[in-house]
Amino acid sequence: MLHWGNDWNTKSLASKRIAGVGDRCEGRVRSGMTTELEHFIDGKRVAGTSGNHDDVFDPNTGGVQARVPLASSGEVDAAVRGAAEAQREWANWNPQRRARVLMRFLELCREEMDSLARLLASEHGKTVPDAKGDVQRGLEVVEFATGIPHLLKGEYTEGAGAGIDVYSMRQPLGVAVGITPFNFPAMIPLWKAAPAIACGNSFVLKPSERDPSVPLRLAELFVEAGLPPGVFNVVNGDKTAVDALLTHQDVAAVGFVGSSDIAEYIHSTATAHGKRAQCFGGAKNHMIIMPDADLDQAVEALVGAGYGSAGERCMAISVAVPVGQPTAEALVEKLTERVNGLRIGTSFDDSADFGPLVTAAAKQRVDDYIGIGVEEGADLLVDGRGFRMPEHENGFFTGASLFDNVTSDMRIYNEEIFGPVLSVVRAAVYEEALRLPSQHQYGNGVAIFTRDGDAAREFAGRVDTGMVGINVPIPVPIAYHTFGGWKRSGFGDLNQHGPDSIRFYTRTKTVTSRWPSGRKEEASFTIPTMH
Ligand code: NAD
Q: Domain Aldehyde dehydrogenase spans what residues (predicted)?
Protein backbone atom coordinates (compact mmCIF):
# COMPACT_ATOMS: atom_id res chain seq x y z
CA MET A 1 0.00 0.00 0.00
CA LEU A 2 1.17 3.52 -0.78
CA HIS A 3 2.56 5.13 2.33
CA TRP A 4 2.47 8.89 2.69
CA GLY A 5 5.61 9.83 4.60
CA ASN A 6 5.29 11.84 7.80
CA ASP A 7 8.61 13.49 8.37
CA TRP A 8 8.38 16.07 11.09
CA ASN A 9 11.73 15.42 12.75
CA THR A 10 13.34 18.57 11.47
CA LYS A 11 15.98 20.34 13.51
CA SER A 12 14.81 22.56 16.26
CA LEU A 13 15.19 26.27 15.66
CA ALA A 14 16.80 28.45 18.27
CA SER A 15 14.21 31.16 17.98
CA LYS A 16 12.33 33.39 20.34
CA ARG A 17 8.75 32.14 20.30
CA ILE A 18 5.41 33.70 20.96
CA ALA A 19 3.73 31.76 23.78
CA GLY A 20 0.48 30.76 22.12
CA VAL A 21 -2.47 28.64 22.94
CA GLY A 22 -0.55 25.66 21.56
CA ASP A 23 1.88 25.83 24.44
CA ARG A 24 -0.77 25.75 27.08
CA CYS A 25 -3.34 23.42 25.58
CA GLU A 26 -2.66 20.38 27.70
CA GLY A 27 -2.90 22.24 30.97
CA ARG A 28 -6.15 23.71 29.78
CA VAL A 29 -7.66 20.35 28.93
CA ARG A 30 -6.52 18.61 32.06
CA SER A 31 -7.59 21.27 34.52
CA GLY A 32 -10.99 21.74 32.94
CA MET A 33 -10.55 25.54 32.80
CA THR A 34 -12.59 27.34 30.19
CA THR A 35 -10.48 29.47 27.87
CA GLU A 36 -11.90 32.57 26.23
CA LEU A 37 -10.81 32.45 22.60
CA GLU A 38 -10.51 35.44 20.30
CA HIS A 39 -10.34 36.46 16.67
CA PHE A 40 -7.00 37.17 14.98
CA ILE A 41 -7.14 40.44 13.09
CA ASP A 42 -4.40 42.77 11.86
CA GLY A 43 -1.62 40.66 13.30
CA LYS A 44 -2.97 40.12 16.82
CA ARG A 45 -5.58 38.36 18.91
CA VAL A 46 -8.67 40.49 19.35
CA ALA A 47 -11.50 39.81 21.82
CA GLY A 48 -14.98 39.37 20.36
CA THR A 49 -17.36 42.26 20.88
CA SER A 50 -20.67 40.84 19.64
CA GLY A 51 -21.54 39.28 22.99
CA ASN A 52 -22.29 35.95 21.25
CA HIS A 53 -20.25 32.83 21.96
CA ASP A 54 -20.28 29.12 21.26
CA ASP A 55 -18.84 26.35 23.43
CA VAL A 56 -15.80 24.35 22.34
CA PHE A 57 -15.92 20.87 23.84
CA ASP A 58 -13.31 18.34 24.82
CA PRO A 59 -14.76 15.29 23.02
CA ASN A 60 -12.82 12.97 25.31
CA THR A 61 -14.58 14.16 28.46
CA GLY A 62 -17.67 15.84 27.08
CA GLY A 63 -16.80 18.99 29.05
CA VAL A 64 -16.63 22.55 27.76
CA GLN A 65 -12.99 23.60 27.47
CA ALA A 66 -13.26 26.97 25.72
CA ARG A 67 -15.66 29.60 24.44
CA VAL A 68 -15.31 30.95 20.95
CA PRO A 69 -16.65 34.41 20.05
CA LEU A 70 -19.11 34.64 17.16
CA ALA A 71 -18.37 37.73 15.10
CA SER A 72 -20.98 40.33 14.20
CA SER A 73 -21.13 41.72 10.66
CA GLY A 74 -19.39 44.85 11.97
CA GLU A 75 -16.43 42.80 13.23
CA VAL A 76 -16.27 41.01 9.87
CA ASP A 77 -16.31 44.34 8.07
CA ALA A 78 -13.36 45.61 10.14
CA ALA A 79 -11.36 42.44 9.43
CA VAL A 80 -12.02 42.54 5.69
CA ARG A 81 -11.19 46.25 5.42
CA GLY A 82 -7.91 45.68 7.26
CA ALA A 83 -7.12 42.72 5.01
CA ALA A 84 -7.82 44.81 1.91
CA GLU A 85 -5.42 47.48 3.07
CA ALA A 86 -2.68 44.99 3.98
CA GLN A 87 -3.06 43.26 0.61
CA ARG A 88 -2.03 46.31 -1.39
CA GLU A 89 1.44 46.34 0.19
CA TRP A 90 1.76 42.52 0.32
CA ALA A 91 1.11 42.22 -3.42
CA ASN A 92 4.14 44.46 -3.99
CA TRP A 93 6.50 42.03 -2.28
CA ASN A 94 8.34 40.05 -4.91
CA PRO A 95 7.29 36.38 -5.09
CA GLN A 96 10.58 35.08 -3.74
CA ARG A 97 10.29 37.26 -0.66
CA ARG A 98 6.75 36.02 -0.12
CA ALA A 99 8.00 32.43 -0.49
CA ARG A 100 10.60 33.00 2.22
CA VAL A 101 7.85 33.84 4.71
CA LEU A 102 6.19 30.52 3.90
CA MET A 103 9.52 28.69 4.31
CA ARG A 104 9.98 30.18 7.74
CA PHE A 105 6.37 29.32 8.61
CA LEU A 106 7.07 25.69 7.66
CA GLU A 107 10.04 25.60 10.03
CA LEU A 108 7.99 27.05 12.89
CA CYS A 109 5.14 24.59 12.37
CA ARG A 110 7.49 21.62 12.24
CA GLU A 111 9.13 22.79 15.44
CA GLU A 112 5.70 23.00 17.06
CA MET A 113 4.26 19.85 15.49
CA ASP A 114 3.68 18.03 18.78
CA SER A 115 1.81 20.82 20.53
CA LEU A 116 -0.20 21.67 17.40
CA ALA A 117 -1.25 18.04 17.08
CA ARG A 118 -2.19 17.74 20.74
CA LEU A 119 -4.17 20.94 20.63
CA LEU A 120 -5.95 19.77 17.50
CA ALA A 121 -6.70 16.36 19.00
CA SER A 122 -8.03 17.94 22.19
CA GLU A 123 -10.76 19.83 20.31
CA HIS A 124 -11.46 17.45 17.41
CA GLY A 125 -11.14 14.06 19.11
CA LYS A 126 -8.90 12.41 16.52
CA THR A 127 -5.79 10.65 17.82
CA VAL A 128 -2.53 12.58 18.12
CA PRO A 129 -0.73 10.62 15.33
CA ASP A 130 -3.72 11.30 13.06
CA ALA A 131 -3.68 14.97 14.08
CA LYS A 132 -0.01 15.14 13.03
CA GLY A 133 -1.09 13.89 9.63
CA ASP A 134 -3.72 16.67 9.52
CA VAL A 135 -1.02 19.31 10.11
CA GLN A 136 1.47 17.59 7.82
CA ARG A 137 -0.92 17.38 4.85
CA GLY A 138 -1.54 21.12 5.28
CA LEU A 139 2.18 21.84 5.37
CA GLU A 140 2.68 19.91 2.14
CA VAL A 141 0.53 22.51 0.38
CA VAL A 142 2.57 25.26 2.04
CA GLU A 143 5.66 23.53 0.59
CA PHE A 144 3.98 23.59 -2.83
CA ALA A 145 3.20 27.29 -2.41
CA THR A 146 6.86 28.11 -1.69
CA GLY A 147 7.37 27.45 -5.41
CA ILE A 148 5.36 30.58 -6.14
CA PRO A 149 8.12 32.41 -8.07
CA HIS A 150 7.99 29.60 -10.60
CA LEU A 151 4.24 29.03 -10.40
CA LEU A 152 3.41 32.67 -11.11
CA LYS A 153 5.54 32.92 -14.24
CA GLY A 154 3.34 33.97 -17.13
CA GLU A 155 3.55 33.10 -20.80
CA TYR A 156 5.39 35.01 -23.52
CA THR A 157 5.22 34.96 -27.29
CA GLU A 158 7.82 36.85 -29.20
CA GLY A 159 6.86 38.01 -32.69
CA ALA A 160 3.17 37.14 -32.61
CA GLY A 161 2.85 39.64 -35.51
CA ALA A 162 5.16 42.18 -37.10
CA GLY A 163 6.94 43.76 -34.14
CA ILE A 164 4.30 42.35 -31.80
CA ASP A 165 5.00 40.48 -28.58
CA VAL A 166 2.30 39.02 -26.33
CA TYR A 167 2.67 38.14 -22.68
CA SER A 168 0.41 37.19 -19.83
CA MET A 169 0.76 37.70 -16.12
CA ARG A 170 -1.09 36.35 -13.12
CA GLN A 171 -2.19 39.00 -10.66
CA PRO A 172 -3.76 38.53 -7.22
CA LEU A 173 -7.48 39.05 -6.69
CA GLY A 174 -7.43 41.05 -3.43
CA VAL A 175 -9.06 39.59 -0.31
CA ALA A 176 -9.79 35.85 -0.37
CA VAL A 177 -11.98 34.14 2.21
CA GLY A 178 -11.85 30.55 3.50
CA ILE A 179 -14.78 28.92 5.30
CA THR A 180 -13.68 25.55 6.62
CA PRO A 181 -15.06 22.44 8.37
CA PHE A 182 -14.27 20.93 11.74
CA ASN A 183 -12.74 17.70 10.50
CA PHE A 184 -9.37 19.03 9.26
CA PRO A 185 -8.79 22.21 11.27
CA ALA A 186 -5.14 22.55 10.13
CA MET A 187 -5.04 20.93 6.70
CA ILE A 188 -7.96 22.64 4.99
CA PRO A 189 -7.26 26.20 6.21
CA LEU A 190 -3.67 25.75 4.96
CA TRP A 191 -4.82 24.27 1.62
CA LYS A 192 -6.70 27.48 1.06
CA ALA A 193 -4.56 30.14 2.72
CA ALA A 194 -1.09 29.09 1.53
CA PRO A 195 -1.68 29.39 -2.24
CA ALA A 196 -3.87 32.46 -1.74
CA ILE A 197 -1.29 34.47 0.16
CA ALA A 198 1.61 33.16 -1.94
CA CYS A 199 -0.18 34.64 -4.96
CA GLY A 200 -0.25 38.05 -3.23
CA ASN A 201 -3.77 38.01 -1.80
CA SER A 202 -4.71 38.61 1.80
CA PHE A 203 -6.86 36.03 3.53
CA VAL A 204 -9.72 35.95 6.03
CA LEU A 205 -10.35 32.50 7.50
CA LYS A 206 -13.68 31.60 9.12
CA PRO A 207 -12.77 28.24 10.69
CA SER A 208 -15.20 25.78 12.21
CA GLU A 209 -16.52 26.94 15.56
CA ARG A 210 -15.98 23.36 16.86
CA ASP A 211 -12.16 23.50 16.84
CA PRO A 212 -10.83 27.03 16.24
CA SER A 213 -7.67 26.94 18.36
CA VAL A 214 -5.25 25.50 15.81
CA PRO A 215 -6.23 28.07 13.13
CA LEU A 216 -5.62 30.82 15.71
CA ARG A 217 -2.21 29.40 16.52
CA LEU A 218 -1.34 29.13 12.81
CA ALA A 219 -2.18 32.83 12.49
CA GLU A 220 0.34 33.63 15.21
CA LEU A 221 2.97 31.49 13.52
CA PHE A 222 2.40 33.28 10.22
CA VAL A 223 3.11 36.62 11.89
CA GLU A 224 6.16 35.17 13.65
CA ALA A 225 7.36 33.94 10.25
CA GLY A 226 7.29 37.51 8.97
CA LEU A 227 3.88 37.79 7.34
CA PRO A 228 2.76 41.42 7.56
CA PRO A 229 -0.18 42.07 9.93
CA GLY A 230 -3.55 41.86 8.19
CA VAL A 231 -2.50 39.42 5.46
CA PHE A 232 -3.83 36.36 7.34
CA ASN A 233 -6.79 36.86 9.65
CA VAL A 234 -9.10 34.55 11.58
CA VAL A 235 -12.68 35.60 12.21
CA ASN A 236 -14.65 33.12 14.29
CA GLY A 237 -18.36 32.89 13.86
CA ASP A 238 -21.50 31.28 12.57
CA LYS A 239 -23.93 32.07 9.74
CA THR A 240 -23.93 35.79 10.61
CA ALA A 241 -20.18 36.03 10.02
CA VAL A 242 -20.32 33.83 6.93
CA ASP A 243 -23.09 35.88 5.33
CA ALA A 244 -21.21 39.10 6.07
CA LEU A 245 -18.14 37.66 4.30
CA LEU A 246 -20.14 36.40 1.30
CA THR A 247 -21.70 39.78 0.66
CA HIS A 248 -18.79 42.09 1.52
CA GLN A 249 -17.80 44.33 -1.38
CA ASP A 250 -14.06 43.92 -0.70
CA VAL A 251 -14.10 40.11 -0.83
CA ALA A 252 -13.03 38.79 -4.24
CA ALA A 253 -12.98 35.02 -3.77
CA VAL A 254 -14.55 32.44 -1.46
CA GLY A 255 -13.24 28.95 -0.83
CA PHE A 256 -15.50 26.65 1.18
CA VAL A 257 -15.30 23.08 2.47
CA GLY A 258 -18.11 21.48 4.46
CA SER A 259 -21.42 19.70 3.99
CA SER A 260 -23.11 19.80 0.59
CA ASP A 261 -26.21 21.83 1.35
CA ILE A 262 -24.09 24.57 2.91
CA ALA A 263 -21.58 24.32 0.03
CA GLU A 264 -24.38 24.88 -2.45
CA TYR A 265 -25.69 27.83 -0.45
CA ILE A 266 -22.23 29.41 -0.16
CA HIS A 267 -21.58 28.94 -3.87
CA SER A 268 -24.86 30.47 -5.00
CA THR A 269 -24.68 33.38 -2.52
CA ALA A 270 -21.03 34.19 -3.22
CA THR A 271 -21.40 34.05 -7.00
CA ALA A 272 -24.63 36.10 -6.84
CA HIS A 273 -22.52 38.78 -5.14
CA GLY A 274 -19.88 38.68 -7.84
CA LYS A 275 -17.29 36.55 -6.04
CA ARG A 276 -15.26 33.75 -7.48
CA ALA A 277 -16.22 30.63 -5.50
CA GLN A 278 -15.13 27.02 -5.12
CA CYS A 279 -17.13 25.00 -2.61
CA PHE A 280 -16.51 21.38 -1.70
CA GLY A 281 -19.17 19.24 -0.06
CA GLY A 282 -19.93 15.89 1.48
CA ALA A 283 -19.12 12.41 0.29
CA LYS A 284 -19.99 8.73 0.18
CA ASN A 285 -16.84 7.02 -0.96
CA HIS A 286 -17.07 3.46 -2.31
CA MET A 287 -14.37 0.83 -2.40
CA ILE A 288 -14.84 -1.86 -5.05
CA ILE A 289 -13.28 -5.22 -4.19
CA MET A 290 -12.79 -7.32 -7.31
CA PRO A 291 -12.75 -11.15 -7.09
CA ASP A 292 -8.98 -11.19 -7.77
CA ALA A 293 -8.11 -8.69 -5.01
CA ASP A 294 -5.88 -9.61 -2.08
CA LEU A 295 -8.63 -9.79 0.55
CA ASP A 296 -6.34 -9.32 3.54
CA GLN A 297 -5.01 -6.12 1.99
CA ALA A 298 -8.54 -5.01 1.16
CA VAL A 299 -9.77 -5.61 4.71
CA GLU A 300 -6.87 -3.63 6.22
CA ALA A 301 -7.54 -0.83 3.76
CA LEU A 302 -11.26 -0.84 4.60
CA VAL A 303 -10.85 -0.63 8.36
CA GLY A 304 -8.17 2.08 8.12
CA ALA A 305 -10.10 4.21 5.64
CA GLY A 306 -13.52 3.45 7.10
CA TYR A 307 -12.88 3.87 10.81
CA GLY A 308 -9.77 6.09 11.01
CA SER A 309 -10.62 9.46 12.58
CA ALA A 310 -13.93 7.81 13.61
CA GLY A 311 -15.04 8.06 9.98
CA GLU A 312 -15.03 11.87 10.15
CA ARG A 313 -13.12 12.31 6.88
CA CYS A 314 -14.53 13.44 3.56
CA MET A 315 -12.35 10.75 1.97
CA ALA A 316 -13.39 8.00 4.41
CA ILE A 317 -14.57 4.80 2.77
CA SER A 318 -18.17 4.33 3.89
CA VAL A 319 -19.32 1.75 1.31
CA ALA A 320 -17.56 -1.55 0.52
CA VAL A 321 -18.68 -3.19 -2.73
CA PRO A 322 -17.47 -6.78 -3.10
CA VAL A 323 -18.04 -8.15 -6.60
CA GLY A 324 -19.57 -11.63 -6.75
CA GLN A 325 -21.00 -13.80 -3.98
CA PRO A 326 -17.77 -15.69 -3.07
CA THR A 327 -15.88 -12.36 -2.68
CA ALA A 328 -18.67 -10.96 -0.53
CA GLU A 329 -18.82 -14.00 1.77
CA ALA A 330 -15.07 -14.12 2.32
CA LEU A 331 -14.76 -10.34 2.74
CA VAL A 332 -17.60 -10.02 5.23
CA GLU A 333 -16.23 -12.83 7.38
CA LYS A 334 -12.76 -11.29 7.62
CA LEU A 335 -14.13 -7.75 7.98
CA THR A 336 -16.47 -8.64 10.84
CA GLU A 337 -13.65 -10.14 12.85
CA ARG A 338 -11.40 -7.17 12.19
CA VAL A 339 -14.06 -4.58 13.04
CA ASN A 340 -14.89 -6.36 16.28
CA GLY A 341 -11.22 -6.06 17.25
CA LEU A 342 -10.85 -2.31 16.65
CA ARG A 343 -9.48 -0.36 19.58
CA ILE A 344 -11.21 2.82 20.63
CA GLY A 345 -9.39 5.17 22.97
CA THR A 346 -8.97 8.78 23.91
CA SER A 347 -7.17 11.12 21.54
CA PHE A 348 -4.09 10.81 23.73
CA ASP A 349 -3.98 7.02 23.77
CA ASP A 350 -1.26 6.15 21.26
CA SER A 351 -2.54 2.62 20.82
CA ALA A 352 -6.09 3.67 19.87
CA ASP A 353 -7.35 3.11 16.32
CA PHE A 354 -9.75 6.01 16.68
CA GLY A 355 -11.07 8.41 19.28
CA PRO A 356 -14.39 10.10 20.05
CA LEU A 357 -16.66 12.01 17.68
CA VAL A 358 -16.47 15.79 17.70
CA THR A 359 -19.72 16.61 19.54
CA ALA A 360 -22.64 14.97 21.31
CA ALA A 361 -24.79 15.93 18.30
CA ALA A 362 -22.41 14.12 15.93
CA LYS A 363 -22.60 11.01 18.13
CA GLN A 364 -26.39 11.18 18.26
CA ARG A 365 -26.54 11.54 14.46
CA VAL A 366 -24.45 8.38 14.01
CA ASP A 367 -26.54 6.42 16.49
CA ASP A 368 -29.72 7.62 14.73
CA TYR A 369 -28.44 6.47 11.33
CA ILE A 370 -27.66 3.02 12.73
CA GLY A 371 -31.26 2.82 13.95
CA ILE A 372 -32.48 3.88 10.51
CA GLY A 373 -30.34 1.20 8.84
CA VAL A 374 -31.83 -1.48 11.09
CA GLU A 375 -35.37 -0.24 10.32
CA GLU A 376 -34.58 -0.26 6.60
CA GLY A 377 -33.67 -3.93 6.80
CA ALA A 378 -29.87 -3.88 6.53
CA ASP A 379 -28.03 -6.52 8.57
CA LEU A 380 -26.19 -4.91 11.47
CA LEU A 381 -23.22 -7.24 11.96
CA VAL A 382 -21.36 -5.05 14.46
CA ASP A 383 -23.27 -2.51 16.59
CA GLY A 384 -21.17 0.33 17.98
CA ARG A 385 -24.02 2.00 19.83
CA GLY A 386 -23.84 1.94 23.56
CA PHE A 387 -20.04 1.88 23.66
CA ARG A 388 -18.77 3.55 26.85
CA MET A 389 -15.16 4.54 27.37
CA PRO A 390 -14.11 3.64 30.95
CA GLU A 391 -13.37 6.78 33.00
CA HIS A 392 -14.67 8.90 30.10
CA GLU A 393 -18.36 8.01 30.28
CA ASN A 394 -19.43 11.50 29.19
CA GLY A 395 -17.06 11.60 26.20
CA PHE A 396 -18.53 11.51 22.70
CA PHE A 397 -17.42 7.96 21.98
CA THR A 398 -19.18 5.46 19.80
CA GLY A 399 -18.01 2.03 18.70
CA ALA A 400 -17.39 0.76 15.18
CA SER A 401 -20.48 -0.42 13.28
CA LEU A 402 -20.74 -2.67 10.24
CA PHE A 403 -23.77 -3.24 8.02
CA ASP A 404 -24.16 -5.98 5.42
CA ASN A 405 -26.76 -6.34 2.65
CA VAL A 406 -27.25 -2.60 2.32
CA THR A 407 -29.10 -1.66 -0.87
CA SER A 408 -29.01 1.45 -3.02
CA ASP A 409 -32.51 2.59 -2.03
CA MET A 410 -31.65 2.89 1.69
CA ARG A 411 -31.00 6.20 3.43
CA ILE A 412 -27.87 4.80 5.11
CA TYR A 413 -26.52 4.31 1.57
CA ASN A 414 -27.66 7.57 0.04
CA GLU A 415 -26.83 9.96 2.87
CA GLU A 416 -23.52 10.85 4.47
CA ILE A 417 -23.31 9.46 8.02
CA PHE A 418 -19.86 10.86 8.88
CA GLY A 419 -19.04 8.37 11.59
CA PRO A 420 -17.45 4.93 12.15
CA VAL A 421 -20.04 3.05 10.11
CA LEU A 422 -19.23 0.92 7.08
CA SER A 423 -21.91 -0.46 4.74
CA VAL A 424 -21.38 -3.50 2.55
CA VAL A 425 -23.35 -3.31 -0.70
CA ARG A 426 -23.01 -6.59 -2.60
CA ALA A 427 -22.70 -6.33 -6.39
CA ALA A 428 -23.28 -9.38 -8.57
CA VAL A 429 -21.01 -8.19 -11.39
CA TYR A 430 -18.43 -5.50 -12.15
CA GLU A 431 -20.85 -3.30 -14.17
CA GLU A 432 -23.17 -3.11 -11.18
CA ALA A 433 -20.24 -2.15 -8.93
CA LEU A 434 -19.21 0.58 -11.39
CA ARG A 435 -22.76 1.97 -11.51
CA LEU A 436 -23.04 2.41 -7.72
CA PRO A 437 -20.48 5.23 -7.21
CA SER A 438 -21.19 6.62 -10.68
CA GLN A 439 -24.90 7.09 -9.96
CA HIS A 440 -24.50 8.27 -6.37
CA GLN A 441 -25.34 11.91 -5.59
CA TYR A 442 -21.81 12.40 -4.22
CA GLY A 443 -18.68 12.01 -6.32
CA ASN A 444 -15.69 12.72 -4.10
CA GLY A 445 -13.42 9.66 -4.01
CA VAL A 446 -13.63 6.01 -5.00
CA ALA A 447 -11.23 3.07 -4.82
CA ILE A 448 -10.85 -0.23 -6.62
CA PHE A 449 -8.86 -3.15 -5.25
CA THR A 450 -7.74 -5.59 -7.92
CA ARG A 451 -4.65 -7.26 -9.37
CA ASP A 452 -5.94 -6.71 -12.92
CA GLY A 453 -4.40 -3.67 -14.63
CA ASP A 454 -6.97 -3.67 -17.43
CA ALA A 455 -9.88 -3.62 -15.01
CA ALA A 456 -8.30 -0.86 -12.92
CA ARG A 457 -7.57 1.31 -15.95
CA GLU A 458 -11.05 0.83 -17.36
CA PHE A 459 -12.60 1.67 -14.00
CA ALA A 460 -10.52 4.84 -13.53
CA GLY A 461 -11.56 6.08 -16.96
CA ARG A 462 -15.29 5.40 -16.63
CA VAL A 463 -16.23 6.01 -12.99
CA ASP A 464 -18.07 9.29 -12.34
CA THR A 465 -16.11 10.68 -9.37
CA GLY A 466 -13.39 13.30 -8.97
CA MET A 467 -10.64 11.19 -7.34
CA VAL A 468 -9.82 7.52 -7.88
CA GLY A 469 -7.59 5.15 -5.93
CA ILE A 470 -6.22 1.97 -7.45
CA ASN A 471 -5.30 -0.24 -4.50
CA VAL A 472 -5.16 3.05 -2.53
CA PRO A 473 -8.15 3.45 -0.20
CA ILE A 474 -7.86 7.18 0.51
CA PRO A 475 -6.72 8.73 -2.77
CA VAL A 476 -6.09 12.27 -1.51
CA PRO A 477 -3.82 13.62 -4.26
CA ILE A 478 -0.39 14.95 -3.37
CA ALA A 479 -0.06 18.72 -2.95
CA TYR A 480 1.16 19.47 -6.48
CA HIS A 481 -1.82 17.72 -8.08
CA THR A 482 -5.34 18.94 -7.42
CA PHE A 483 -8.08 17.81 -5.04
CA GLY A 484 -11.78 18.03 -5.80
CA GLY A 485 -14.97 16.01 -5.95
CA TRP A 486 -17.73 15.91 -8.56
CA LYS A 487 -21.53 16.11 -8.45
CA ARG A 488 -22.77 17.15 -4.98
CA SER A 489 -19.22 16.91 -3.62
CA GLY A 490 -18.08 20.05 -5.44
CA PHE A 491 -19.64 23.32 -6.60
CA GLY A 492 -17.55 25.61 -8.80
CA ASP A 493 -14.99 25.03 -11.50
CA LEU A 494 -11.47 24.67 -10.18
CA ASN A 495 -9.97 22.21 -7.68
CA GLN A 496 -8.05 22.85 -4.48
CA HIS A 497 -4.24 22.97 -4.27
CA GLY A 498 -1.89 22.13 -7.13
CA PRO A 499 -1.96 24.22 -10.31
CA ASP A 500 -5.72 24.92 -10.02
CA SER A 501 -5.14 26.80 -6.76
CA ILE A 502 -2.84 29.26 -8.54
CA ARG A 503 -5.49 29.73 -11.23
CA PHE A 504 -8.22 30.21 -8.63
CA TYR A 505 -6.34 32.81 -6.59
CA THR A 506 -5.11 34.90 -9.53
CA ARG A 507 -6.56 36.48 -12.64
CA THR A 508 -4.73 36.59 -15.91
CA LYS A 509 -3.84 39.83 -17.63
CA THR A 510 -2.62 39.57 -21.22
CA VAL A 511 -0.49 42.32 -22.76
CA THR A 512 -0.07 42.76 -26.50
CA SER A 513 2.79 45.14 -27.26
CA ARG A 514 4.10 46.65 -30.43
CA TRP A 515 7.00 48.98 -31.08
CA PRO A 516 6.44 50.64 -34.48
CA SER A 517 9.74 52.57 -34.33
CA GLY A 518 8.49 55.70 -36.03
CA ARG A 519 6.91 54.00 -39.07
CA LYS A 520 4.13 56.01 -40.66
CA GLU A 521 0.86 54.14 -40.16
CA GLU A 522 -2.74 54.61 -41.18
CA ALA A 523 -5.83 53.68 -39.23
CA SER A 524 -7.15 50.17 -39.80
CA PHE A 525 -10.91 49.68 -39.65
CA THR A 526 -10.93 45.89 -39.73
CA ILE A 527 -10.36 43.58 -36.80
CA PRO A 528 -6.62 42.86 -36.48
CA THR A 529 -5.72 39.33 -37.56
CA MET A 530 -2.48 37.42 -37.68
CA HIS A 531 -1.40 36.63 -41.19
P1 NAD B 1 -20.57 22.22 7.95
O2 NAD B 1 -21.13 22.37 6.59
O3 NAD B 1 -21.51 22.08 9.09
O4 NAD B 1 -19.66 23.51 8.31
C5 NAD B 1 -18.65 23.96 7.44
C6 NAD B 1 -18.46 25.46 7.65
O7 NAD B 1 -19.66 26.13 7.28
C8 NAD B 1 -18.16 25.84 9.08
O9 NAD B 1 -17.19 26.87 9.10
C10 NAD B 1 -19.51 26.34 9.60
O11 NAD B 1 -19.37 27.32 10.59
C12 NAD B 1 -20.14 26.92 8.35
N13 NAD B 1 -21.60 26.83 8.36
C14 NAD B 1 -22.35 25.85 8.91
N15 NAD B 1 -23.66 26.10 8.71
C16 NAD B 1 -23.73 27.26 8.02
C17 NAD B 1 -24.82 28.04 7.50
N18 NAD B 1 -26.09 27.66 7.66
N19 NAD B 1 -24.55 29.18 6.83
C20 NAD B 1 -23.28 29.56 6.65
N21 NAD B 1 -22.19 28.86 7.12
C22 NAD B 1 -22.42 27.73 7.79
O23 NAD B 1 -19.53 21.01 7.90
P24 NAD B 1 -18.77 20.32 9.10
O25 NAD B 1 -19.72 19.53 9.92
O26 NAD B 1 -17.90 21.31 9.81
O27 NAD B 1 -17.77 19.35 8.30
C28 NAD B 1 -18.16 18.08 7.86
C29 NAD B 1 -18.59 18.11 6.42
O30 NAD B 1 -17.55 18.62 5.60
C31 NAD B 1 -18.87 16.72 5.85
O32 NAD B 1 -20.01 16.79 5.04
C33 NAD B 1 -17.64 16.40 5.05
O34 NAD B 1 -17.83 15.44 4.02
C35 NAD B 1 -17.31 17.73 4.49
N36 NAD B 1 -15.93 17.81 4.05
C37 NAD B 1 -15.70 17.84 2.71
C38 NAD B 1 -14.41 17.89 2.24
C39 NAD B 1 -14.12 17.94 0.77
O40 NAD B 1 -13.00 18.25 0.39
N41 NAD B 1 -15.09 17.67 -0.08
C42 NAD B 1 -13.34 17.91 3.16
C43 NAD B 1 -13.62 17.88 4.52
C44 NAD B 1 -14.93 17.84 4.96
A: 52-511
* pLDDT at residue 5 is higher than 90: no
Q: What is the domain-level CATH number for residue 342?
A: 3.40.309.10
- 25 catalytic per annotation: no
DSSP class of residue 311? G
Domain identity same for 107 and 73: yes
Please name which of 416, 406, 442, 444 lies closest in space to residue 328, comparing C-alpha atoms: 406
How would you classify the pairing of strands 317-322 and 421-424? Answer: parallel
Reported as a pLDDT band with limits 50, 70 and 90, residue 6 is very low
User: What are 230-284's pLDDT values in tens digits?
Assistant: 999 999 999 999 999 999 999 999 999 999 999 999 999 999 999 999 999 999 9
Q: Is 311 in the pocket of ligand 1 (CB under 6 A)?
A: no
Number of domains composing the chain: 2
Reported pTM: 0.93
Say whether pLDDT at 28 is over 90.
Answer: no
Instruction: Judge if 344 and 272 occupy the same domain.
Output: no
* Span 98-135, pLDDT tens digits: 999 999 999 999 999 999 999 999 999 999 999 999 99
Number of H helices, E strands in the chain: 17, 23
Query: Is there a single domain that holds both residue 58 and residue 163?
Result: yes
Is it the case that residue 33 has pLDDT exceeding 80? no
Beta strand 401-404 with 421-424 is parallel
Q: Report yes or no: 354 and 308 within 8 Å, Cβ to Cβ.
A: yes
Atom of ligand 1 nearest to the CA of 262: 2
Asked if 465 contacts 474 with a C-beta cutoff of 8 angstroms, the reply is no
Q: Residue 165: pLDDT above 60?
A: yes
Domain boundary among 420, 445, 470: 470
Check if 444 has its Cβ closer than 6 Å to any atom of ligand 1: yes
Q: Whose CA is nearest to atom 26 of ligand 1?
A: 181
Residue 180 CA to ligand 1 center (angstroms) comes to 6
Q: Which of 257, 467, 482 to mutate to test the pocket of ligand 1 (most atoms within 8 A of CB)?
A: 257
Catalytic residue among 25, 199, 279, 314: 314
Q: Tell me the residue type at 419.
A: G
Domain range for residue 390?
285-470
- Our answer on whether the CB atom of 180 is closer than 6 Å to any ligand 1 atom is yes
Residues 278 and 289 in one domain: no
- In whole angstroms, give the CA distance from residue 456 to residue 454: 5
Q: Which atom of ligand 1 is nearest to the CA of 444?
A: 41
- 213 with 297, same domain? no
